[in-house]
């Protein structure tokens, strides 16, 4: 992974489009451990009642926790820290008095296989992760591995499919379906309660260094808000896309000037965004139709985590802000 992509992958959340459909299959060979990557079939391995689960993919551990399975170890992609047990504030209490081993994300997805082996896992989750067959093979020499379907771009798995895969692998598909249904029901309710959202153009923009960007359809930040009735601001569609994210050249910063916007910085204090002359020149900002959030704001973290529970947490807090901004649209 390049330094640029690594920075984006850690800071942006990498919660993106379902690009490989439910026709994916279980991948296995004659080795003892298998790679499970299909949400509608039972895995080819049996787990004990209280499996030892090591969660390596982005938010994989939080999803397992929401299904009633407490991972023994979590790769802390978002640096929630030991005080939050490697998950967001909306989920930490579900561990109760148990505490997982926290694997710091400083290595950006490079794993210590000896360390993982010594955890004696029954199952390894590496679903929202890089598509790296060498990593998968090394992990499956330790225990069965759950991955995204073959061919899924790095970290680019839809939150619903990620939940389905993990739930099915744990034998808890009903619980997974319930988590998904609760989140989609909330989206439906919020959309019905806010009919003025329908058809309003929306941008979730970012400032990092001296550059700007916008999230695209397929990313949870955009898609979750779009489910409330908002639509993509057309100029964003004309930008050069890098997966789930489009760079915005300085001379095209007006592409961020939608009817309603959310802006957040990446790797810098909120003040640097708030004091940015180009951002402040946009009518969406001048008219009070832009919501500016710190990178560490719980709403931003919830959207970045991109789990059913974190999206509910974020939506419940963001929607009143969106309603206030939308009320200013002329």
TrEMBL record:
Keyword annotations for this protein, in alphabetical order, are:
Signal, Transport
Q: Pfam families, from UniProt?
A: Peripla_BP_2
Tree of life domain: Bacteria
Ranges for domain Fe/B12 periplasmic-binding: 52-326
Q: Which residues form the signal peptide?
A: 1-26
Location(s) in or outside the cell: Cell envelope
Q: Mind telling me which Gene3D superfamilies this protein's record contains?
A: Nitrogenase molybdenum iron protein domain
Family the entry assigns: Belongs to the bacterial solute-binding protein 8 family.
Instruction: Specify the protein name.
Output: ABC transporter substrate-binding protein
Q: Which organism is it from?
A: Gordonia sesuvii
């Amino acid at each position: 992974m390049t330094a640029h992509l690594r920075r984006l992958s850690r800071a942006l959340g990498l919660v993106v489009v379902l690009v490989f459909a439910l026709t994916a299959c279980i991948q296995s060979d004659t080795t003892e451990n298998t790679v499970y990557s299909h949400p509608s079939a039972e895995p080819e391995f049996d787990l004990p009642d209280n499996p030892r689960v090591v969660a390596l993919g982005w938010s994989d551990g939080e999803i397992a926790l929401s299904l009633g399975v407490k991972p023994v170890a979590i790769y802390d992609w978002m640096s929630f820290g030991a005080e939050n047990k490697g998950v967001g504030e909306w989920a930490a209490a579900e561990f109760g008095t148990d505490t997982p081993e926290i694997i710091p994300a400083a290595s950006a997805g490079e794993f210590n296989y000896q360390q993982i082996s010594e955890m004696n896992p029954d199952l390894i989750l590496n679903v929202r992760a890089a598509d790296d067959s060498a990593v998968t093979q090394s992990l499956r020499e330790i225990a069965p591995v759950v991955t995204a379907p073959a061919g899924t771009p790095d970290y680019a798995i839809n939150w619903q499919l990620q939940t389905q895969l993990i739930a099915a692998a744990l034998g808890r598909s009903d619980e997974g379906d319930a988590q998904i249904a609760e989140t989609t029901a909330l989206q439906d309710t919020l959309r019905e309660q806010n009919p003025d959202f329908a058809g309003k153009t929306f941008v979730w923009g970012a400032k990092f260094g001296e550059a700007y960007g916008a999230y695209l359809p397929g990313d949870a930040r955009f898609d979750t808000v779009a489910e409330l009735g908002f639509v993509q601001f057309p100029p964003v569609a004309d930008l050069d896309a890098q997966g789930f994210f489009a760079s915005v050249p300085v001379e095209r910063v007006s592409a961020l000037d939608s009817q309603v916007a959310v802006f957040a910085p990446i790797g810098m204090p909120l003040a640097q965004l708030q004091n940015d002359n180009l951002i402040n020149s946009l009518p969406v900002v001048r008219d009070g139709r832009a919501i500016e959030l710190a990178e560490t704001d719980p709403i931003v973290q919830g959207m970045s985590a991109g789990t059913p529970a974190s999206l509910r947490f974020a939506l419940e807090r963001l929607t009143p802000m969106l309603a206030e901004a939308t009320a200013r649209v002329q």
